[in-house]
Design goal:
- This protein is α+β, with helices and mostly antiparallel strands and 447 residues long.
- The chain is 50% helix and 11% strand.
- A seven-stranded mixed β-sheet has the order 3-4-5-2-1-8-9. Strands 6-7 form a two-stranded antiparallel ribbon. Strands 10-11 form a two-stranded parallel ribbon.
- Strand 8 and strand 9 form a beta hairpin.
């Protein structure tokens, strides 16, 4: 196993001082899967104060001294070093009430969540794998270490971690572990919103997300209750060949694997059940569901306590995911003025994901959507006027025509609209002339 030289030297220092030391957890798992590890956690038989003594010439921070963790800054690399330990009870369902330090690596590995994460390695001693983690990695299996009920009772977030690993790695969940996942789903209510959001963000971007969403639908409806209304919901539409929840899962997988796109497609049809109407031909319609879904998405993202920027992106994509698509220059310029290139592209990608999750004939609309994206990129590259800041005049230039007032604001908005539609050029003289005309027109309308 290739390790950064700093990690090798840290391990050697501890070994030379008479202690056992290993890299452990995710970095070992990633290496065994042929992936490049980026974070390296070290576990050792040295007690925290003994570790501090070994690295007395380095900057050492007692980052988690209660649980045996110190952070060593060694030759430019910050490394967490934790003493072998066993955990006491988890009364809060998240953290151990107490820990007991050990000199035995197997004690430390036995407290971890899944066999694939219960493997240690050192250049001197090789791999330590008492629970068959390497075999499970080779077989693509997620299996709890020891009793699954105990593992999930210790830390409720492990329920979602199991699903996240399954979606990201494409692994199946071993039968008893899977049973425990279902049995402990209600305990996710105790987990902080921030932790739920972090795991869900990674899960949704996984390559096997559709299977996990479908196989564990009741767990996702536990996290996001409005999804429960989608499960088994027949859409009654000539465009849809699946239930609403199945369509959502397929649309999520079809979307680009970015956090904003995957969340947007998870939420894009939440409002459908409340917007349902039936036409004379018996066909179901869902007028206005984009806006209703957007409001619901906003509430959910706020509850998950994600960042404002991501929340706003998701809400905008959801709100406009079903707008009509045209490829005319006028349409594209208006959409770019309203959304900008990046957001317009995201909205078009939502169209593609949505149509990809319907009957095959709906896919025939996708080339037109891709054409709209290309046209938007070309128009955006022209550096023409598509926003208020691109207008060559501002309110200061209009003061001789109209004083600062709501009327001035209306004139500027109308000037931008007509410039976007290419009715007038973005030139100062033309804009000032049109501003004077608009003053008269808008003043008469107000009177």
């Amino acid at each position: 196993m290739e390790l950064p030289f700093q990690i090798i030297e840290v391990l050697e220092r501890l070994e030379n001082a008479g202690f056992a030391a290993f890299v452990v957890g995710g970095c070992v798992r990633d290496f065994l899967m042929g992936m490049t590890p980026h974070d390296f956690d070290i576990t050792t038989s040295a007690l925290p104060k003994e570790t501090e003594g070994v690295f007395a010439d380095c900057r050492v921070t007692e980052t988690g001294i209660k649980h045996g963790t110190v952070t060593v800054l060694y030759k430019g690399m910050s490394t967490e070093i934790t003493t072998f330990r066993t955990d006491g009870n988890y009364s809060d369902g998240r953290h151990p009430d107490s820990v007991s330090f050990s000199r035995n690596i197997e004690d430390d590995l036995s407290r971890r969540d899944f066999t694939m994460n219960g493997i240690a390695y050192s250049p001197k001693r090789g791999f330590v794998d008492p629970f068959g983690g390497q075999a499970d990695i080779k077989s693509g299996i997620i299996r709890s270490i020891g009793d699954p009920d105990k593992r999930f009772s210790e830390d409720e977030l492990r329920v979602l971690r199991a699903l996240r690993f399954s979606a990201v790695l494409g692994f199946s969940i071993e039968e008893k572990t899977c049973q425990a996942v279902h049995q402990h789903k209600n305990k996710l209510r105790k987990v902080s919103s921030e932790r739920i959001f972090a795991e869900l963000s990674r899960l949704l971007c996984g390559k096997d997300v559709k299977r996990v969403l479908l196989d564990f639908s009741e767990i996702f409806s536990e996290i996001i209750p409005p999804l429960g209304a989608e499960i088994g919901y027949e859409q009654g539409s000539k465009y849809h060949n699946s239930t609403l929840y199945e369509h959502t899962a397929r649309a999520v997988e079809a979307a680009p694997d970015t956090v904003e796109m995957r969340f947007a497609m998870l939420f894009h049809d939440l409002g459908k059940p409340s917007c349902r109407s039936v036409g004379e031909d018996g066909e179901c319609h869902y007028y206005g569901h984009g806006e209703v879904s957007a409001k619901m998405a906003d509430e959910i993202m706020r509850a998950l306590k994600c960042g404002n920027s991501l929340r706003e992106q998701v809400v905008e994509i959801v709100k406009y995911h079903d707008i009509p698509v045209e490829t005319s220059r006028k349409y594209i310029r208006r959409q770019l003025a309203k959304h900008g290139l990046e957001m317009f592209t995201a909205i078009m990608n939502a169209h593609i994901a949505d149509d990809s999750a319907k009957y095959d004939f709906c896919r025939e609309r996708i080339p037109k959507v891709r054409e709209a994206i290309v046209a938007a990129e070309q128009i955006s590259a022209e550096s023409s006027c598509l926003s208020m800041k691109s207008l060559v005049i501002s309110g200061n230039d209009l003061r001789e025509i109209v004083p600062p007032s709501p009327l001035m604001g209306k004139i500027l908005e109308k000037l931008l609209e007509e410039t976007v539609d290419e009715k007038i050029p973005n030139e100062k003289s033309a804009l000032l002339k049109r501003a004077a005309e608009l003053k008269e027109i808008l003043s008469r309308q107000d009177n």
